[in-house]
Design brief:
Layout (H helix, E strand, L loop, with lengths): L7 H12 L7 E7 L2 E9 L5 E4 L11 H9 L4 E7 L13 E3 L2 E4 L19 E6 L4 E5 H6 L4 E7 L2 E4 L2 E2 L14 E7 L2 E7 L5 H11 L5 E5 L4 E4 L3 E4 L11 E6 L8
Antiparallel strand pairs: 1-2, 2-13, 3-17, 4-15, 4-17, 5-6, 5-9, 7-8, 7-9, 10-11, 10-14, 12-13, 12-14, 15-16
């Protein structure tokens, strides 16, 4: 009797289908902001599930990309992208709104001045969010206060870099205040663009990157000197390691498996 031969390809395809779709790594590119290179990550929200993480299941802040990556590996999930979220306070708590998996862990902060707020209070500040339908957006804090989105995730920071197509009028094109900077925008509801500078850059030049090079009508500053992104292909981009402090909130994209929210 001749042995029964089963083609391998259909079995492989069946196994892959049963395992579910695999997230593709967000794309990474370099774009100039004036004379400074910036690394830009494009998250396609139809293909990748963008997440926001502050603490693990035991209530301990992740703090670093390494801890977040190890946490994911413990669940069979591979980190594809990580970035710092918005500005935080001296107790390493998000200074403004922080929403994870639809749960508000920190409320909207509408204070205009106060100790420790720094750039956060430079008007206008704003909110980046992804709603439950998977659509991303950036709005001012005042807009959010009037009409909050049904957010799956959100971070509040400031200042806004671009508002309705205009660079924040508080920025001076001739300013010599140069810092590492990171920011986010949503050129379309289905895409989130994250950018981090590879060297110190002015607010105005960084805002111009979002408006003129990335095509964003609204963009939000995330943080300054401690800003860093991580991808498997590019490693770390942004500030030098010696400048980085623990984070209170990190954006992440994982591959394999379903999202397991941290508490």
């Amino acid at each position: 009797m001749r042995p029964l031969l089963v083609p391998l390809a259909p079995l492989v395809l069946f196994a892959l289908a049963a395992a579910g779709p695999l997230a593709a790594a967000p794309t990474l590119r370099t774009v100039r902001a004036g004379t400074i290179d910036c690394r830009v990550v494009d998250v396609d929200l139809a293909a990748d599930r963008l997440e926001l993480h502050w603490k693990d299941d035991g209530g301990r802040a992740f703090g670093t990309v390494d801890r977040l990556r190890e946490w994911g590996e413990g669940q069979g999930r591979t980190l594809q992208f990580a970035a710092n979220a918005g500005i935080y306070d001296g107790q390493f708590r998000p200074l403004g709104l922080h929403v994870e998996d639809g749960r508000v862990l920190r409320p909207l902060n509408t204070a205009r001045t106060g100790a420790g707020r720094g750039n956060f209070a430079l008007p206008p500040n704003g909110v980046f969010y992804v709603d439950r339908a998977g659509h991303a957006g950036v709005v001012t804090t005042a807009q959010w206060q009037r009409r909050p989105a049904d957010a799956r995730l959100a971070t509040q920071s400031g200042p806004m870099l671009v508002v309705d197509g205009d660079i924040n009028p508080n920025f001076d094109a001739a300013s010599d205040s140069l810092k590492w900077r990171s920011g986010v925008c949503a050129p379309t509801p289905g895409h989130a663009l994250f950018a981090v500078s590879e060297a110190p850059v002015s607010f105005h030049a960084f805002a111009a990157l979002f408006r003129d090079e990335l095509g964003c009508r609204d963009a939000l500053y995330l943080d300054g000197t401690l800003s860093r992104f991580w991808t498997p292909s590019g490693g770390y981009a942004g500030a030098a390691a010696v400048l980085v402090k623990p984070y209170a909130g990190m954006f992440a994209v994982f591959a394999d498996g379903e999202a397991a929210p941290a508490r």
